[in-house]
Write a structure and sequence with these properties.
By secondary structure, the protein is an alpha/beta fold. It is 39% helix and 18% strand. It is built from 5 helices and 4 strands; from the N terminus they run H-E-H-E-H-E-H-E-H. The radius of gyration is 12 Å and the shape is globular.
Length: 94
């Protein structure tokens, strides 16, 4: 799965798994915030999102955890690491 291509071509949904406070401090354009600790409770919502899900956080640690869980649930997703990396790839489309 080519994460850069998915982001540039807006093929999926960008899901930021940081806390709401972190998200409010800055996030990738068009991303939605589903904090790590809410993933299991919000599975029905997650299943309705356009896949692949592009997961991001501050450094890639939390999004890696979510990626492992969602992949086990059969949801097409990828770990994009830091939201700043996602932001960088988005900026290259302009």
């Amino acid at each position: 799965m080519n994460i850069e291509k998915i982001i540039k071509e807006k093929q999926g949904t960008i899901v930021d798994v940081r806390t709401p406070a972190e998200f409010a401090g800055g996030h990738a354009e068009g991303s939605i915030n589903i904090p790590l600790n809410e993933i299991t409770a919000r599975m029905e919502e997650i299943k309705t999102l356009k896949t692949p899900l592009v997961l991001c956080c501050a450094s890639g640690g939390r999004s890696s955890q979510v990626h492992g869980y969602l992949a086990q649930q059969g949801i097409e997703c990828c770990n994009a690491g830091s939201w700043l990396d996602v932001n960088y790839f988005q900026a290259q489309t302009v």
